[in-house]
Recover the amino acids of this structure.
């Protein structure tokens, strides 16, 4: 079921049928460097990751990460959506794309649509964004969405410091 459509993209809920795509995405060097190593190395582990970490978010919060596909050919190119973390007061927007689809505006297009969906459909007032300090591409996307840098945060005591952005400045 499609959740969001933009001019070029379709965003829909992930299912275990998307395990092969997720396995590839989660093991991209840029994903591991900028988001983190999820330790998913096999197709069954990718299916378990989706069923234990992604699908429960849809059920618990009514949102989550969505598979992002090109409208033309319905080719999966990345993920974009909302995450509710225990350590943050509000949901944060997240996105990751296969490297061959970088620098084409897909992150901004999908994230902008997710932000509008969060406000207009889900009724969320404030959306956060977090990114590694040196992830210039992600910082540009958050700023393009109108988000403002608030402060540095750690999601856990032993985590690195991340830049926290907010949609309400």
């Amino acid at each position: 079921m499609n959740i969001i459509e933009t001019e070029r993209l379709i965003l829909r809920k992930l299912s275990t049928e998307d395990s092969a795509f997720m396995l590839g995405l989660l093991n991209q060097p840029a994903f591991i460097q900028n988001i983190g190593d999820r330790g998913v190395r096999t197709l069954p582990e990718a299916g378990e990751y989706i069923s234990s970490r992604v699908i429960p978010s849809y059920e618990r919060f009514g949102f989550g990460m969505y598979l992002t596909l090109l409208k033309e050919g319905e080719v999966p190119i990345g993920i974009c959506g909302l995450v509710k973390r225990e350590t943050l007061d509000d949901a944060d927007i997240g996105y990751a794309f296969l490297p061959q689809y970088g620098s084409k505006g897909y992150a901004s297009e999908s994230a902008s649509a997710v932000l509008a969906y969060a406000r207009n459909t889900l009724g969320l007032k404030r959306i956060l964004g977090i990114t590694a300090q040196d992830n210039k591409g992600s910082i540009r996307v958050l700023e393009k969405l109108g988000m403002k840098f608030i402060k540095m945060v750690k999601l856990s005591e032993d985590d690195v410091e991340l830049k926290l952005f907010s949609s309400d400045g």
Notes: The radius of gyration is 15 Å. The mean pLDDT is 94. Residues 43-61 form the longest helix (19 residues). The longest strand covers residues 75-83.
